[in-house]
Amino acid sequence: MVKYYKADNDGNNTEMVGEELENYLADNAKVQKSLDAIIQEEEDAETGNKKFLDMGLTQAEVTAMTKYIPRKVRYDNYIAKGYTEEKASELSGYNPGESE
Predict the structure, then answer these.
(1) What is the pTM of this model?
(2) What distance in Å separates the CA atoms of residue 86 and residue 33, rounded to the nearest whole number?
(3) At 7, phi and psi to the nearest 5?
(4) How far apart, in Å, are the Cα atoms of 90 and each of 24, 65, 66, 78?
(5) pLDDT digits over 28-85, tens only?
(6) For residues 69 and 81, what is the distance between their CA atoms, to the nearest angstrom?
(7) What is the DSSP track for the chain?
(8) Residue 25 phi/psi, 5° resolution?
C-alpha cells in the first residue's frame, strides 16, 4: 500500500490519513484531469493543423484561421526574442532534434 506524507516547515514528514488524504487525492485527480484536457487540446490542434496543411493550405493560412502556432514556430519565436534554447524548449514544448 502506498503511503503519502507531507512535510512541515521544519522538514518533518507526517503521514497523511483520513480526510486529509482523501482531499489530497481528490485535488490531485482534478489537477491530472485538467492536465489531460490541456494535452488533448494541444494534440487535437496539432492534428487539425496537419490536416489543413495536407489539404494544401499554407501554415500562415492555417494560423490565420485557427490561431494555432506550431511548437517549432513558438520555439523559434522565443529564440528570436533572446531566450535560451532550454527556456525556449520549456515554454514551447519543442525540443530541437526531435521530430515534430
Answers:
(1) 0.67
(2) 27
(3) -105, 140
(4) 27, 26, 23, 10
(5) 999 999 999 999 999 999 999 999 999 999 999 999 999 999 999 999 999 999 999 9
(6) 16
(7) ----EEE-TTS-EEE--HHHHHHHHHHHHHHHHHHHHHHHHHHHHHHHHHHHHHTT--HHHHHHHH----HHHHHHHHHHTT--HHHHHHHH---TTS--
(8) -65, -40
38 in Cβ contact with 45 (< 8 Å): no
- Give the max Cα distance, the chain: 61
Closest CA to 73 of 86, 88, 61, 58: 88
Can you read off the three cell numbers belonging to residue 16? 497523511
